[in-house]
Amino acid sequence: MAGRTTERLPGIRFETETKQKDETLRMDIAVFVGFAAKGDLHKPTPVEDIHRFEEIFGGDLTLAREAETGRKVCAYLAPCVRLFFNNGGRRCWIIRVPHADGDGLVPFNAALFLDPELSDCGTDMVMAQADFLRYCSPSPRTLSGIHAALAVEEASIISVPDAIHLGWDRLPDVPQPKAPEANTTSVQAGQQVETCIGNDKRKEKGDKTNQAERTDLLQFFDCDRIPPPRPELSSTKPDDAGNFILRWTDVPDAVYVLEETVTEWSAATESYKGKEQSLLYNRPPNDYFYRVRAIVGCAESDWSDGVAVRVGPPVEWRQNEAAAYQNDALRTIHQALVRMCAARGDLFAVLTMPGHYRENEARVYADDLQKTAPAIGKFSGPTAQLEMSCAALYHPWLITHAEGDARVLRSVPPDGAVAGIMAKRAVERGAWIAPANENLQGCVALTPAISEELRLTLQEARINLIRQEPRGFLVLDADTLSSDRDLRPIGVRRLLMLLRRAALRLGGRYVFEPNDAALRRSVRRGFEALLADLHKRGALKGTTPAEAYQVVTDESVNTATSTDQGRFIAELRVAPSLPLTFLTVRMIQTGEHISLVEGAQ
């Protein structure tokens, strides 16, 4: 019997296709460490927009006030995160460190930002000690301060904006203000009062009226002789912005008069007259006194008891003067941060200096940091320049509009905006592209002004200057703190970080392979494919692959002795777009462990 065929009508069939995993390594994710109004301490928390940050960590946090001007000194974490997203950042991690305890602000020092058991570790010991504390110690624990960022494997940029505070002192407690004594105005025996009925007005003496006339008058003038009850006044506690609400109790058919003073009632001024029973006020920091009275017809009540309102913190904290500033804490934090970034190998530190630093102070600090940052360990002597290439220093500060009020200007450190530019460049063009010549969003001015005559001196000190140009505020330099000509460009260091991540991910595929010639050929092909892709994208210099990169896995690096010890070595030699010499990244596999070592050929 002939087979039956099934006919189908023309149509469209939809098939679900599994989405391929994105193999691109992200180099646009940052970590910010600093002070926040709320949130968990020392716990890395991801956020992908400023609204999520404010939901978890709150808005701007007031810490103290400037000694001379009385202006608020706020934490720099929130504005820096805001600038990060405004300048192209898409994702960052926040690590909140403590700024206060139950008694107010804590003394400002480096210990707020560092794990106590890692603060003095040399570069060659940071990762081993961190792993021991997290996994192998008798009481495993999470890390604190900047070292908590070691748990964020996807991050490649880190900044500590609140490390540049000048510190603060606690002023003596100021007692809460007491309102001046209120005088009474109700009718007393013997006082002359004015009474009215319709349009007829007359005056009388309370102590001269006979009893019969007094009784007759009370039938008509009781409402005028007896004042209405005085309202009871209260106030809410002012918030950080100086907003508070005054409320008073109801008096039927009354019109209320509210007076305000900062000294005595004799100097009080009328601030409100009407029938409302509550008012929202906003006042600058000071002590204010209020009282209210009710008017019903021709009668006036006594003034209420005075209410004192203090706008400003109950205990004032004063920022230390710039003239007395010592950068010991800042230098200690920056040194530890550079060591941590060099130890991990794929973190880049964005550093800034205090806003009052002029040209000479900035140059001295940059020189001092470069001389003292190398730690005791394998990165000492000339090789310490590898360590210093993991950080870049930026100056001066940015002046921006305060959040929610364009009339108020605020100066903030530039690390948030710079980190945003780095993230944007990594997404749009690649991590090896210099994060420079990009207009900084949200900046309206710079402080302090940098003399044009001293720009070259600061650039030679490897300080990346932010400058005002005709098309905006730009960073025209992209230098690390390394004096090595090949490692000085930020793009080169970021490329090596990307290469390190890619090598570790690719090298993990060969962990359990036998150490023979087949492994060498397989590793060489895998890394050549990786480097060929980077070459096509413009990360490497050279018109041919041989001019751009080399992968060495032969007997020149894998000697018989090394193989007998269970080691396999692959050398990746790359020529970044800027330097003319090859830079070498050596991958060493010992058993199940893979390590990478950098060096110049």
Explained architecture:
The chain is an alpha+beta fold and 601 residues long. It has three domains: 30-171 and 320-484, Rossmann fold (3-Layer(aba) Sandwich), CATH 3.40.50; 192-314, Immunoglobulins (Immunoglobulin-like, Sandwich), CATH 2.60.40; 498-600, Nuclear Transport Factor 2, Chain: A (Roll), CATH 3.10.450. Helix content is 24%, strand content 26%. The protein contains 13 helices and 31 strands. An eight-stranded mixed beta sheet has the order 2-5-1-8-21-22-26-27, with helices on both faces. Strands 14, 15, 17, 18 and 19 form a five-stranded antiparallel beta sheet that branches. It has a four-stranded antiparallel beta sheet with strand order 28-29-30-31. Helix 2 (77-86) runs parallel beside helix 8. It is elongated. 38% of the residues are buried.
Mean pLDDT: 84
CATH topology of the largest domain: Rossmann fold
Strand-pairing-aware structural class: alpha+beta
**In order across it, which strands form the biggest sheet?**
2-5-1-8-21-22-26-27
| Major beta sheet summary | 8 strands, mixed
Query: How many structural domains are formed by the residues?
Result: 3
Rg estimate, integer Å: 35 Å
Shape: elongated
The count of DSSP E runs of length 2 or more, i.e. the number of strands, is 31
CATH class wording of the largest domain: Alpha Beta
Proportion in β-strands: 25-35%
Low-confidence stretches: 17-22, 185-209, 375-382
CATH level-two architecture of the largest domain: 3-Layer(aba) Sandwich
Head-to-tail CA distance between termini: 79 Å
Helix percent reads 10-25%
Number of separate helices:
13
